[in-house]
Amino acid sequence: MSSLPLDRRNALTPEALAMMDTIARAGSFAAAARELGKVPSALTYSVRQLEDALDVLLFDRSSRQARLTAAGDELLREGRRLLAEVDAVANRVRRVATGWETQLTIALDTILAPRAVFELIEAFYALRVTTSASEQPEPPPTRLRLRHEVLSGTWEALLTGEADLAIGGAGFGDASPGIECLPLGDIDLQFAVAPHHPLAKLPEPLTPELIARHRIVAIADSAHRLAPLTVGVQPGQDVLTVPSLAAKLEAQLRGLGCGSMPEPLLRRHVAAGRLVLKTTTLPPRAITLHYAWREGNGAMPGLALAWWLDQLKSPTTRRALLEQHEGLVL
Q1: What is the CATH classification number for the domain harbouring 242?
Q2: What is the pLDDT of residues 237-274, one digit of tens each?
Q3: What DSSP letter does each residue of 16-51 carry, written as one string?
Q4: Is there a single domain that holds both residue 161 and residue 309?
Q5: Which of 37, 222, 269, 307 could form a disulfide with 274 if both were Cys (CB 3.0 to 4.6 A apart)?
Q6: 208-237: buried (b, 16+ CB within 10 Å) or exposed (e) per residue?
Q7: Which residues form the HTH lysR-type domain (predicted)?
Q8: pLDDT tier at 330 (50, 70, 90 boundaries)?
Q9: Is residue 75 part of a domain?
Q10: Which of 11-20, 130-139, 186-195 has the highest mean pLDDT?
Q11: Residues 142 and 215 placed together within one structural domain of the fold
Q12: ∠ CA(83), CA(85), CA(89), 5° rounding?
C-alpha cells in the first residue's frame, strides 16, 4: 500500500463502520453502492482509504463477491458492537438531559437484608418514564452500581465521592458539608454459636473472660482512610476475619468461631437448630444504622437518587432492609 497511512482513530468513523456493515450485508460492492446511493468506484475508494489507515486488507480481491478477510471479519464484528454502543450512548445522553443521572452508585453495608435490597432494585427497573429520547415509556436511563461495604467503609465511600448514596452504615459521624444523614433504624445483635461449638454447652451467662478463650469471627471494616472499627473482640482473643456478614454466618454455622449477628438473620437458623443463642454478661448490643447522600451543592437530587430517598422515607422499607434476611445473602 503506497499511500501514506491515515490516522487510525480518524479513519474508524461511524460512517466507515456502517459502510463495512452495508457491504457485508449486501454481498457485493455494487449492491452496497446502490443501497448507499453512491457509485461503486467511490465505495471502493473509501474501503481502500480505510485499509491504508489500518494497514490491512479487509476484503479478498480475488473474488467478485465482497468476501471479508479475517481482519475484515474482526473489524465488522467489532464495528457492529461499537455502532450499537454509539447509538446507546446517544440515546442515554438525550434521556439524561431530562434529569436522570447517568449512573447512581450506592454503598450498601453487608448488614442489610439482601432480599429487601433486590426488591428495591426490581421496583426501580420496573419504573416506566417518558423522556425526550422516546415517546414510549421506558425503564429509567440511570445505571445502578452497587458497592458492598462494612462499618466505616460505608461512610467513607460517601465522603470520598465514590458513592452517591450510602445505606446501612453504623459508623456515620457528624454530618459533613454537602452530605445529609438520616437514621435507618436500630438492629439488635445477639451472641450465637454452632451447636457443636465448645461454648454451646457451657452454663450462661458467658463472661468476657470465657468468650476470650475462643476464636471470634469478625467482619473486616472496609474503610481505607478512616479509622476502621473493631466490634465485639475481647483483648487477646483469637480472630477469624472475614469480608462480609454472609461469610461470618457461614463460619459460625461451621463452628469456626463465635460472635454476635443481627437477630433477624439468626432467627431461622436458631429455629432450625443450626445455631444456639447464648446470653452473656456483656452489655446488650443494639446499633443504629443510617443512610446518607450527597446533596450536590444545594441542587435538587437527580431523579434516580430522589426515587431511592423517597423509598427510604417509608418505615416499612427501612424495616425490611433490617429484617428480611431470608433467601440470598450479599
Answers
A1: 3.40.190.290
A2: 999 999 999 999 999 999 999 999 999 999 999 999 99
A3: HHHHHHHHHHHSSHHHHHHHHT--HHHHHHHHHHHH
A4: yes
A5: 269
A6: eebbeebbbbbbbbbbeebebeebbebeeb
A7: 12-69
A8: very low
A9: yes
A10: 186-195
A11: no
A12: 120
CA-closest candidate to residue 304, choices 142, 108, 137: 142
Distances (CA, A) of 239 to 42, 77, 213: 73, 52, 11
160 pLDDT above the threshold of 90 = no
Contact 19, 33 (CB under 8 A): no
pTM over 0.85: no
For position 210, what pLDDT does the model report? 95
CATH number of the CATH domain containing 39: 1.10.10.10
One domain for residues 282 and 199? yes
Q: Do β-strands 285-294 and 179-193 pair in parallel, antiparallel, or remain unpaired? A: antiparallel
User: Domain limits at 132?
Assistant: 103-182+291-323
Residue 308, amino acid: W
Question: 3-state DSSP: the chain helix, strand, coil percent, rounded to 5?
Answer: 40, 20, 40
Cell of 289: 444504622
Residue 114 lies in a domain: yes
